[in-house]
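pls design
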């Protein structure tokens, strides 16, 4: 049986869908069925990852310059 600290250490792999053995995946799911604290942690981790920008959401040069101009930051630093 996994302990909470073990699940937290591997939670990113679970959320990202990284390859893991069937035994690892089953142990994590069993722990999540019994531990509401870890369920909340995984749910919050998923929510956090949804809010992060993806590489495909990168700003184009014109939009980047517009933001820098509003902040009065020269682009060539």
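designed seq:
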């Amino acid at each position: 049986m996994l302990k909470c600290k073990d699940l937290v250490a591997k939670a990113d792999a679970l959320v990202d869908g990284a390859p893991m053995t069937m035994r690892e995946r089953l142990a994590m799911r069993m722990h999540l069925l019994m531990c509401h604290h870890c369920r909340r942690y995984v749910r919050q981790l998923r929510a956090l990852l949804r809010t992060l920008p993806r590489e495909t959401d990168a700003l184009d040069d014109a939009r980047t310059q517009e933001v820098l101009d509003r902040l009065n930051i020269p682009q060539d630093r």
